[in-house]
Amino acid sequence: MSGPELAVLDVGQGDAIVLHDPATADAILLDCPAGKAAVPLAFLESRQLTRLRTLIVSHLHDDHYGGVLDVLRHVPADHVLVSLGIGAGQAHPKVVAFLREIKRETATGNSSWSIPRRSHSQQLAPVLHHGALRITVLGPDEQAELDAVAGTNPNHASTIIRAELGSFSALLGADAPPTRWAALLRSNDQLDADVFVCPHHGGAFGPNPKRLDALLERVSPKIIIVSVGATNAHGHPDLSTLQTLGNYAIAHRARLVCTQLNRHCGSDIGSRHSCAGTVVVTHTNGILAVTTERDEHRAWVNSTVTEPHCLWARAA
After folding, report:
1. Coil, helix or strand for 185?
2. 3-state SS assignment for residue 113
3. 1-34 burial string, b = 16+ CB within 10 Å, else e?
4. How far apart are CA 268 and CA 243, in angstroms?
5. CA distances (Å), origin 225, targets 5, 55, 279
6. Contact 128/161 with Cβ under 8 angstroms?
7. 249-286 burial, b for 16+ CB within 10 Å, e for fewer?
8. Taking the model in full, what pTM does it have?
9. Residue 218 has what pLDDT?
10. Are 90 and 57 in contact (CB under 8 A)?
11. N or C: which end of the chain has fewer CB within 10 A?
12. Are 52 and 29 in contact (CB under 8 A)?
């Protein structure tokens, strides 16, 4: 039997990430964008999973919460965590309706729901255990929620988790902005991880690009994944972010992979939106393996894109 797996699903612009322990049939879903519920549902069905142990809504942006209800109506969850950081009076009617419906779904689905949060007074972050899956909630803390409520950007309240999946680990930060990562870098939290899902779909990392360098050195990932939509309207990923990730990959013989092509890949990509597609990471017999949806992914990228960032470290 294979060990635990981390799947970053190809949902275009947004996140949908599954953590799965086949030995116990435990599974956790982090986010699902609007109109994309069919993707995680198909993946869960392929693993013969009919119930989630935990579903996490990292924050209240449509490309992270919009498809969650459609998933829950087909695959219920024992527990739902929803980050609620949003300014008073600023909640879009869709958000208000979502929160009302998520409470109704959990009430009728024999499940519970709560808010992912760590307190300033907590020396240790909250931890969830499901089989070989261990989830540590590193954020948001109270200050992050206050920043989100005081402003207009729910990204400040993004749920940041460090996941242990048997013998490998992953750091997942949704759309957490650079200020949140800077706070974590000042902390004593364990941030090292084998897999790093780049926050905010590879968006700009603030006015000080060295913050991303410092974060990568602290995390020390062997695999970096960018979940991004080829035709997104936000300009993701940012070129400087992509270059920083690529330079790290060169220096550390890491693997950089994107779910879809992006605006920096070249002018000749045409309508071919998928790149790696869904990315699945496993650790078997001491080997950290990356499986991509597109067969012969490296060869395809090399033949499609001139000087692709993700293949700079060819030996990785």
Report:
1. helix
2. strand
3. eebbbbbbbbbbbbbbbbbbbbeeebbbbbbbbb
4. 20
5. 14, 21, 8
6. no
7. bbeeebbbbbbbbbbbbeeebeeebbbbbbbbbbbeee
8. 0.92
9. 97
10. no
11. N
12. yes
SS3 call for 48 = coil
Give dist(CA 82, CA 114) in Å, integer: 6
The answer to whether residues 129 and 27 touch, using CB atoms and an 8 Å cutoff, is: no
| Residue of 160, 113, 114 whose CA lies nearest to 135 | 160
**Which segments in the chain show pLDDT lower than 70?**
1, 86-91, 117-126, 142-152, 209, 266-272, 312-316
Among the residues of the chain, which ranges form H helices?
38-46, 62-65, 68-72, 93-108, 142-150, 178-185, 210-219, 239-252, 297-304
Rounded to whole angstroms, the Cα distance separating 201 from 214 reads 18
Q: Hey, what amino acid is at 201?
A: H
Pairing of strands 279-284, 5-8: antiparallel
Q: Are 237 and 257 in contact (CB under 8 A)?
A: no
Phi, psi of 197 (to 5 degrees): -90, 110
Query: What pLDDT score was predicted for residue 106?
Result: 83
Q: Is 222 within 8 Å of 195 (Cβ atoms)?
A: yes
| Cα 230 to the center of its chain, rounded Å | 17
Do the bridges between strand 223-226 and strand 195-197 make them parallel or antiparallel, or are there none, so unpaired? parallel
First to last CA, the chain: 26
What pLDDT, on a 0 to 100 scale, did the predictor assign at position 114?
Answer: 76
Residue 93: helix, strand or coil by DSSP?
A: helix
Catalogue the E-assigned strands of the chain: 5-8, 17-21, 26-30, 52-57, 77-82, 112-114, 127-130, 133-139, 160-165, 168-172, 195-197, 223-226, 255-258, 279-284, 287-292
Residues pairing with 287 in the sheet = 284
